[in-house]
């Protein structure tokens, strides 16, 4: 996937809109947040086929496992090249520890990572990234 010439303002607009939406499994969760961000930057939504197909973490996990992946992180890892987390740049995908120790996905924004949590959008330091993928 190639980033569009105007990817930066498109990403800013997407994140601003995402911050106003409530968290909902299968509609607006970390994996779909990242898919929407990638779509904003490239015009292609890698997560389009997952939207509306599950209503809990467990159900979403079952679906990605049926596709042959351990979890949502593995699904993204199969589509984007992995890079050292501290080499991640604006718009890249980061993996952090989420609720209950489960991995969560976010979008790098400078020295921070936008992450979608049940309470809304948060920013975590890039130093908390366990893995990262280039978009």
TrEMBL record:
Residues 2-135 form the DUF6950 domain. Pfam families: DUF6950. It comes from the Bacteria. InterPro entries: DUF6950 (IPR053802). This is DUF6950 domain-containing protein. It comes from Cereibacter azotoformans.
């Amino acid at each position: 996937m190639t980033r569009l010439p105007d990817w930066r303002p498109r990403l800013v607009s997407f994140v601003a809109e995402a911050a106003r939406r409530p968290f909902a499994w299968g509609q607006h969760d970390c994996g779909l947040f990242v898919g929407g961000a990638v779509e904003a930057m490239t015009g292609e939504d890698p997560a389009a086929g997952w939207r509306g197909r599950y209503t809990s973490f467990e159900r979403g996990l079952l679906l990605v496992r049926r596709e042959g992946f351990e979890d949502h992180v593995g699904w993204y890892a199969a589509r984007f090249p992995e890079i050292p987390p501290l080499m991640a740049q604006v718009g890249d995908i980061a993996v952090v520890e989420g609720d209950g120790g489960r991995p969560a996905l976010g979008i790098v924004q400078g020295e921070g990572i936008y992450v979608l949590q049940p309470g809304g959008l948060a920013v975590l330091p890039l130093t908390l990234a366990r893995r990262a993928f280039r978009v």
